[in-house]
Amino acid sequence: MTAPVAIIMGSQSDWETMRHAADTLTALGVAHDTQIVSAHRTPDRLYAFAKGAKAAGHRIVIAGAGGAAHLPGMTAALTELPVFGVPVESKTMSGLDSLYSIVQMPAGIPVGTLAIGKAGAVNAALLAASVLALTDSDLATRLAAWRKAQTDSVAARPEGAA
Ligand code: RP5
Predict the structure, then answer these.
(1) Cβ neighbours of residue 46 under 8 Å, at least 6 residues apart?
(2) Number of domains composing the chain
(3) Is residue 162 part of a domain?
């Protein structure tokens, strides 16, 4: 069976960020497929992936890219699947360029845009899991347990305080 979540990224250099999406999905028991698909360097690969993603059985696409980050928007233009965009932190502009490139979509082609960097990658995975959990009660149970463990891990007082 095809993985319900496809994680795509513009470059190998994005993996350091996007692996947090993959790790989070793994922790929740959500199968995912991970590919490098560049809007600029491999446009034919992008077209083939996005046009075929729904028929291939994917239900959600998480797309991470940095700089002039056209990957999430172009993917959303080519598929009806929900696309969550992760702005990868860039060296020159700390990811603000990535964020603006991804978040400022024209009306009609939505990209659900997350925070810059690791937090965005983790939250894209959690959002994907939340959507899938609407029709998967076992996943809903695992997601609730994940959230409870997170809550339980937060101390009432800061370590080192008097
Ligand atoms: C984007 O350009 C990628 O998403 C990456 O974040 C950025 C830099 O890519 P590399 O030059 O590191 O391959 O397309």
Answers:
(1) 37, 38, 39, 71, 74, 75, 78
(2) 1
(3) no
What is the CATH classification number for the domain harbouring 144?
3.40.50.1970
Q: Which domain holds residue 143?
A: 5-152
Let me know if residue 161 belongs to a domain.
no
Question: Mean per-residue pLDDT for 84-96?
Answer: 97
The answer as to whether 41 is a domain residue is: yes
CA of 95 to the centre of ligand 1 (A): 11
Residue with CA at minimum distance from ligand 1 atom 3: 10
Whether the full predicted model's pTM is greater than 0.95, yes or no, is yes
Residue 60 tokens read as: 């959600």
DSSP state of 12: G
**Structure tokens that stand for 123 in this block:** 């939250």
Does 11 belong to an annotated binding site?
A: yes
Q: Report whether pLDDT(81) > 90.
A: yes
pLDDT over 70 for what percent of the chain? Answer: 99
Res. 5: pLDDT tops 80: yes
To test the pocket of ligand 1, the residue of 8, 11, 45 to mutate (highest count of ligand atoms within 8 Å of its CB) is: 11
Instruction: Name the DSSP class of 29.
Output: T
**Is residue 35 situated within a structural domain?**
yes
pLDDT value at residue 162 = 79
